[in-house]
Specification:
- This protein is α+β, with helices and mostly antiparallel strands.
- The chain is 46% helix and 10% strand.
- The chain has 13 helices and nine strands.
- Strand 4 and strand 5 form a beta hairpin.
- Helix 4 packs parallel to helix 10, helix 6 packs across helix 11 and helix 11 runs antiparallel to helix 12.
């Protein structure tokens, strides 16, 4: 998708004084937004002139922040209907709210034009509060405060999983796993790396994909729950603090005291509470492997931890999930293996997605993090003998020398 070199600036309409800081490439959409904002501002007490960009993600959605005349602010979603399906966002937001999570509430939605007014969960993400190193190769250093943050995310994840029911969300099945894995050869290997696989290498990749899918579909007796599918610090908000980073400096308990919710997750262990960490970017949620979201949380696209920290939080999640009667099994070793194999599928998928974002959608910034995912993938392949041929293939694609040292 190519945009004009100088996109037109949204001009204030005669019906509402709208901020001129929002850029539009489609004048018709700019006009539709002005009309929608004017009508919505009257019903919800908005200040149109305060509209400003809040964030944009890897999709075609954008988010604006707008002030309320009575104080506070709201979020506006701009999601062109031809490019984005907002119905799933609306449906899953309701599911999350019913599960006790702090998800945005939909206050107004014009489906034909794709504008939505939402409650504002705050301006700081968990990622921003952690403030990880900028360099991809650097490892973030955890402390008691970051552990508290991750445990609040675990509370939210367990509450979400406890609400799971079959037949509500699309299944994370073999077909979907296959489509996601295909992104790696189609976009990363072929189009980005311009690497042509030999017949032998194609067989190696196909065999590895078969192993990965079998593990992810059958591990832990095929346990299934609601899966957010992008449960990571960039999509978790710290809504109630003026400066979450400052609060963290005062100690994790201070942060937890101020962000603790009032209700325990249904079926959860006594004394646990659902914290008010906000949850975003959930519109692609599915019903799938119980390992997916914890793998996503700890093997992040934009920061890396030492394995000791990853293990610590994963063990704590597993212990709480078992107490909550979630289907995580009684053997942590088996569970952790399933998490690693699930994570490997995600790493390969994201390598393909980041290449596609660069080559098709003109969003090159994501490719800077591809070395992180190659490192994640190699680490898993090195641990399991069955994945050795895939590790060799990854090194051939990247031009690296293979060093073998399997754990299992």
């Amino acid at each position: 998708m190519n945009s004009p070199a100088t996109p037109p600036i949204f001009e204030a309409s005669s019906s509402a004084a709208v901020s001129s800081h929002i850029e539009w490439t489609d004048p018709a959409r700019a006009s539709a937004f002005a009309d929608w904002l004017a009508a919505t501002s009257q019903r919800h007490g908005l200040v149109p002139a305060s509209v400003r960009l809040a964030s944009a993600d890897a999709s075609f959605r954008r988010y604006f922040r707008v002030d309320a005349a009575a104080g506070g602010s709201f979020i506006i979603m701009d999601a062109p209907p031809a490019l984005e399906n907002c119905q799933s966002f609306v449906d899953i937001a309701a599911l999350m709210t019913a599960a006790g999570l702090n998800a945005p509430k939909v206050l107004a939605w014009n489906a034909p034009v794709g504008f939505m007014l939402l409650t504002d969960l705050g301006g700081q993400t968990m990622m921003e509060a952690i403030a990880p190193p900028a360099a991809v190769a650097e490892i973030a250093q955890p402390n008691a405060a970051t552990q508290a943050l991750y445990m609040s995310a675990v509370d939210a994840l367990i509450a979400w999983q406890l609400a799971s029911k079959p037949g509500v969300l699309p299944p994370y099945d073999d077909a979907l796993l296959s489509r996601e894995l295909a992104l790696f050869p189609d976009w990363y290997i072929d189009k980005y790396r311009a690497f042509t696989l030999s017949d032998k290498q194609q067989t190696t990749l196909a065999d590895a994909f078969a192993l990965i899918k079998a593990s992810n579909l059958n591990a832990l007796d095929g346990a299934r729950v609601f899966v957010h599918r992008d449960f990571m610090p960039r999509n978790l908000m710290m809504p109630h603090l003026a400066s979450a980073a400052d609060q963290l400096k005062q100690g994790p308990q201070n942060w937890l005291d101020q962000t603790a919710g009032a209700a325990a997750p249904s079926g959860g262990s006594a004394g646990r509470v659902v914290t008010s960490v906000g949850v975003l970017d959930f519109q692609d949620a599915v019903y799938g492997p119980v390992t997916y979201d914890i793998a996503s949380l700890l093997r992040d696209a934009f920061l890396s931890w030492e394995e000791d920290f990853v293990l610590d939080i994963t063990v704590r999640y597993w212990q709480q999930a078992r107490k909550a009667a979630l289907p995580v099994g009684d053997d942590f070793g088996e569970f952790y293996r399933a998490v690693e194999w699930m994570g490997l599928q995600r790493h390969l998928k994201i390598l393909g997605i980041f290449a596609r974002l660069t080559l098709r959608d003109s969003k090159p910034k994501y490719l800077a993090d591809t070395p992180r995912f190659i490192k994640y993938a190699r680490a898993t392949c090195m641990r399991y003998r069955q994945l050795g041929p895939l590790m060799v293939l990854l090194d051939e694609i990247e031009g690296n020398e293979t060093r073998v040292g399997y754990t299992f």
